[in-house]
Amino acid sequence: MTISLRPVEEVDLPFLNRLTSDPDSTGDFQWYGWLNPHRLRRLWEDDGLLGDDKSYLIIVAGDDDVGFLAWTKVPTTKVSYCWSIGLIVAPEHRGKGYGTQAQKLIVRYLFDHSTANRVEASTEITNVAEQRALEKAGFTREGVLRGVGFRAGQWRDGVLYSVIRSDLDREL
């Protein structure tokens, strides 16, 4: 099934909170402890979760909201930046290719609507499913980030991936 992306609506806030704060919904690689349940509402009230430096979109398949995607502006020099993306697909919708499709769509969107030359994503080194999804979405594995993330009482290695504008010649 083909997916689409749409802006977050107020009615989506409980869904976003579930995917970021409920350990049964976040997945093993996204559980960082309980979060303030009001933080997303405050951000949504401020800019509708569509800011200049950080934004969120809902991933939709048919009539179902299946997850969300977020991106953050990362300065790379005094005059340039790249985007760092991440997503969470609800457990009941995982393994259907929605994450891969969403990553392809957001790469195209960010290159079409900004001057950034690079979109990057990272994941834990043991998150093989996400690594496969990134590679299917056209990302190139750049390397291992040793001890980059703290989760569940341990420092964990990560893997960094990227797409640059010239990669768009390949099918995304």
TrEMBL record:
Residues 3-157 form the N-acetyltransferase domain. The keyword Zinc-finger does not apply. GO terms for molecular function: acyltransferase activity. Its EC number is 2.3.-.-. Transmembrane segments: none annotated. Keywords: Acyltransferase, Transferase. InterPro entries: Acyl_CoA_acyltransferase, GNAT_dom, Ribosomal_N-acetyltransferase. PANTHER family: N-ACETYLTRANSFERASE DOMAIN-CONTAINING PROTEIN, RIBOSOMAL-PROTEIN-SERINE ACETYLTRANSFERASE. This is GNAT family N-acetyltransferase.
